[in-house]
């Protein structure tokens, strides 16, 4: 009954949390870029961030400086959007230039851009002055250099008009262009939010590292049970992934770290996460597992791991869409195991059910923010994943009988216990 009540309370908590996130993420109507111009004169940049989404001017296969824009041939395209979804050839290779004009309100005087990474290098001008760059933009693979790092770019308000020119080049990744939105706002506000996001990611990384060490020690104490090792490795893998994906916090501390190893680590941690998760769940609920599905999923992830190690980023990044099918199959396999365990009232199944629901909420949040419906908050994902792994840890501890939801029964000395030997002598 204790496990069931926890499940009910956990489901209610997840529902309320998801509802609050949905309500808090609904923003007021914001101006959008229309044919290369964004009218933000009535927008309060002091208290809100403004995504620069909409119809930018795009100069495909042209690297133009601000003074050269008049000589280029541009067209209006949706921004942000990768080139694979913009070009008829679906190619992400090459180079291009973007331009947008923002009509600014009278205040504030100190502004900042929250600049995401691009596929795979960029250079940004503001009113004719270079204010940021990632890697080296070039017209060939030899003259360009990829780099991923999320930045906050602060600058003084340049009068009533902000003119941005963005050059992007890519010869190393399957995707090209820029996927994530650029946001404009008051400098201190954007900088503070960026620091909080970085801190939350580091907390996620540190918490999972601590869980890895705890369960690694437990592995040696508990007769080296493989299920404990699988969970410890799962914590370690996701801990590494937290700083090698999304905002790429690792690059902020080590900006000279080569791009190719960084993207390899990002992909490898995804595949190893799936491997450890499959083995962990199968070992946790052995009566509900399907050995054929288990070994097939592990084998496919090993194949993708080998491709990532042996081929170039341009080669292995093009298979990600295919791998999403594998990831979907693994989620279905995990849901099936956990549902059967829940029906069979296996110890810890309630915790894992909440994990699946929480994972779906986090995944949906990630997708909706990518589509621009919600404001992206790394803190939601970081603390969501911490809570997710804590629940999985409790499921494992219940499975190992290290903790239990059942109160211990008090030992009662009865009359029969005292005189049972004499009773057997009575004829």
Features:
49% helix, 16% strand, 2 domains, alpha+beta, elongated, Jelly Rolls, 11 helices, seven-stranded mixed beta sheet, Rhopdopsin 7-helix transmembrane proteins, 427 residues, four-stranded antiparallel beta sheet, disordered C terminus
Short description, anyone?
The protein is an alpha+beta fold and about 425 residues long. It contains eleven helices and 13 strands. β8 and β9 form a beta hairpin.
Question: Could you describe the 3D structure shown?
Answer:
Strand 8 and strand 9 form a beta hairpin. This protein is α+β, with helices and mostly antiparallel strands. The protein is built from eleven helices and 13 strands. The N terminus and C terminus are likely disordered.
Helix content: 40-55%
Q: Total domains, how many?
A: 2
Low-confidence stretches: 1-12, 22-28, 407-415, 422-427
Mean pLDDT: 85
Strand content: 15-25%
- Total number of β-strand segments? 13
CATH class of the largest domain: Mainly Alpha
Gross morphology is: elongated
* Helical stretch tally: 11
Instruction: Tell me the radius of gyration.
Output: 27 Å
**What's the architecture of the largest domain, going by CATH?**
Up-down Bundle
- The CATH topology of the largest domain corresponds to Rhopdopsin 7-helix transmembrane proteins
Distance between the termini: 45 Å
The structural class is: alpha+beta
The main pleated sheet reads as: 7 strands, mixed
User: What is the N-to-C succession of helices and strands?
Assistant: HEEEEEEEEEEEEEHHHHHHHHHH
């Amino acid at each position: 009954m204790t496990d069931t009540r926890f499940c009910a309370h956990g489901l209610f908590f997840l529902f309320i949390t998801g509802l609050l996130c949905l309500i808090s993420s609904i923003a007021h109507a914001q101006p959008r870029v229309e044919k290369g111009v964004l009218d933000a004169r009535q927008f309060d940049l002091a208290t809100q961030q403004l995504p620069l989404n909409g119809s930018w001017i795009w100069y495909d296969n042209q690297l133009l400086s601000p003074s050269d824009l008049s000589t280029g041939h541009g067209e209006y395209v949706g921004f942000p959007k990768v080139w694979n979804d913009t070009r008829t050839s679906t190619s992400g290779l090459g180079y291009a230039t973007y331009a947008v004009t923002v009509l600014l309100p009278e205040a504030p005087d100190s502004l900042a851009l929250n600049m995401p990474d691009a596929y795979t290098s960029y250079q940004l001008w503001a009113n004719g002055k270079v204010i940021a760059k990632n890697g080296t933009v070039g017209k060939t693979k030899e003259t360009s250099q990829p780099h991923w790092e999320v930045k906050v770019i602060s600058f003084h308000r340049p009068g009533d008009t902000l003119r941005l020119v963005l050059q992007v080049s890519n010869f190393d990744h399957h995707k090209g262009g820029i996927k994530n939105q650029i946001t404009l706002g008051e400098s201190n506000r954007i900088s503070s939010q960026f620091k909080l996001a970085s801190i939350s990611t580091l907390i996620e990384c540190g918490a999972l590292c601590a869980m890895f060490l705890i369960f690694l020690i437990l592995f040696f104490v508990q007769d080296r049970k493989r299920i404990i090792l699988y969970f410890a490795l799962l914590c370690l893998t996701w801990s590494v992934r937290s700083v090698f994906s999304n905002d790429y916090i690792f690059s902020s501390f080590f900006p000279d770290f080569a791009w190719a190893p960084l993207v390899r680590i990002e992909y490898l941690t995804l595949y190893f996460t799936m491997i450890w998760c499959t083995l962990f769940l199968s070992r946790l609920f052995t009566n509900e597992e399907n050995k054929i599905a288990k070994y097939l999923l592990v084998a496919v992830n090993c194949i993708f791991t080998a491709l990532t190690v042996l081929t170039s980023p341009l080669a292995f990044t093009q298979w990600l869409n295919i791998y999403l099918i594998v990831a979907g199959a693994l989620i279905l396999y995990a849901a099936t195991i956990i549902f059967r365990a829940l029906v069979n009232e296996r110890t810890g199944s309630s915790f894992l059910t909440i994990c699946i629901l929480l994972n779906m909420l986090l995944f949906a949040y990630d997708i909706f923010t990518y589509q621009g419906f919600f404001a992206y908050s790394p803190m939601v994902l970081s603390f969501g994943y911490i809570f997710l792994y804590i629940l999985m840890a409790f499921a494992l501890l219940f499975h190992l009988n290290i903790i239990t939801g059942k109160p211990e029964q008090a030992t009662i000395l009865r009359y029969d216990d005292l005189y049972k030997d004499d009773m057997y002598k009575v004829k």
